[in-house]
Amino acid sequence: MGLWRKIMRTGRVAEPAPARVPGEAPSKAAELAGSVQIRHVDAGSCNGCEVEISSAFGPVYDAERYGARMVASPRHADALLVTGPVTRNMEMALRRAYDAVPEPRLVIALGDCARDCGVFAGAYGVAGAVSDVVPVDVEVPGCPPEPEAIVAAVRRLTGR
Ligand code: SF4
């Protein structure tokens, strides 16, 4: 009962829903009908982007209210959310994860490292940016991107 009372006292903490950021959605996103299941792949991140993803799907930014949900397997996913530069050790794993996502599949490259290797460009263990390994549909700049930017990218896919 103590926990229940605490929940009731705290109430809803989610920020009011901001207006949608205008931006062209990938054409494949229309086939997903406003609901996108996302599998996160850390291809070599420093973990900064993961902290912001946690915030974006946490109670304050609440990305799920726009129709996005994290899932545990690429076989259950519509989209991959990829962070970090693609390290040599993760290159094959990322290709396999991409192949496991059923069509129509989408890829979000999240953070500067995913877009162009960022601060890790040229490092000996880096195979390349995400687009060097799998096709990318949406890019989210930033190091790391703020939760608002992650939510905005997700809303481009769900259209909500
Ligand atoms: S973009 Fe920045 S926060 Fe994200 S993985 Fe790269 S260095 Fe880390």
UniProtKB/TrEMBL annotation:
| Listed GO MF terms | 4 iron, 4 sulfur cluster binding; metal ion binding; oxidoreductase activity
Q: EC number(s) per UniProt?
A: 1.6.5.11
Gene3D superfamilies per the record? 3.40.50.12280
Q: Which domain of life is it from?
A: Bacteria
- Look up the record and name the cofactor or cofactors this protein needs: [4Fe-4S] cluster
* Residue stretches in coiled coil: none
State the Pfam families in the record: Oxidored_q6
Keyword vocabulary terms for this entry:
4Fe-4S, Iron, Iron-sulfur, Metal-binding, Oxidoreductase
What family does the Swiss-Prot or TrEMBL record give for this protein?
A: Belongs to the complex I 20 kDa subunit family.
Record's NCBIfam families? PRK06411.1
> By what name is this protein known?
NADH-quinone oxidoreductase subunit NuoB
| Source organism (scientific name) | Nonomuraea phyllanthi
Q: What is the lineage of its organism?
A: Bacteria, Bacillati, Actinomycetota, Actinomycetes, Streptosporangiales
The gene coding this protein: nuoB
